[in-house]
Amino acid sequence: MQNVKLNCGIDMPIIGYGVYMVDPSVTERCVLDALSVGYRSLDTAQYYENEAMVGAAVRKSGVPRDEVFITSKLCQSRPTYAQAKENVKGSLRRMRLDYLDLMLIHWPMGNDGDIWAAFEDLVKEGYLRSIGVSNFYPGQFEKLVREASMIPAVNQIETHVFYQQRPMISKMADAGTVVESWGPLAEGLNGIFTNPVLTEVGAAHGKTAAQVALRFLTQQGIIVIPKSVHKERMIQNLDTLDFDLSQDEMAAIRCLDTGHNLEGWPSDALKYNPETVV
To answer: Which domain range does residue 135 map to?
Structure first.
C-alpha cells in the first residue's frame, strides 16, 4: 500500500475505506471485508453513528491495531475546550480504542480555536496521533491556523473528477496539509461510472472508469476513501495503484471539472468566507 507522509511525521495509506452512509447493521461486516482484502485505513465519524461497529470489526479482524490507521471526526455544536476533549474520548470509548490515528473537526463550528486547542492537548497526552479538519475552505482554514501550534495534517474535502479543487489543493500544499477526498467517486452521480473520457482512458489500462477516477486523485497525492458495501467493488477500488495516467490522460480528465460541488455550489461561493459553514 502506498502511504502519504503527514506533516506530523506519520504515514497514512493513500487509499482507505470510508463508512459514510453504511448502515450500522452492516458496518461491522463491511469493515471486516475491507480489512480482509487489504485496506489498512478506516474512516468513520461520530455523525455516522457506526464508530462502535468499526472498532468491533478491527478487534475481530485479527489485524494488529498498529497496522490499521483509524480516523474519526468530532461532531458537536460549538463545544467548549473541555467538552471537545470529552467528546473525543467518547469516540475512543465507543470504539474501545486507546488512541486514534487521526481526528478531524467535521466542519467549521465557529469556535474552532477552542476545539483545536483540545485536539493539540490530546495529541500531547497520547490519545491522538494526528489532527486535522474537514470541509474547511481557505478563509476558515487560515482563521484556524493563525492561532494554532500544530498545522492541520489533513483537510478532508469534496474532491473528484467533476470538482477537482485545484486552488484548494495548491493552498493546502503551501500550508503542508494533505488533501483527503470525500466522495472521490462523486457519490455515483454525473454518470461517473460510464463517463466516456474515463471509460476510454480505462480501456487503455484495463481498468474501469471508477478506477481511473480514483487514480486521477491518488496520482496527485490526494488520499481517497471510497465506500462500498460490496466486497468485489472494495477490491476494485483498492486495485488502482498499479498503473499511471499519462500527461495527456490527466489533461483530458482535468477537462471534466465543472467547478461546482455535488450540491451545485461554485467554488468561489465558498472560497474565502471564514464564516461559511459547509
So the answer is: 3-259
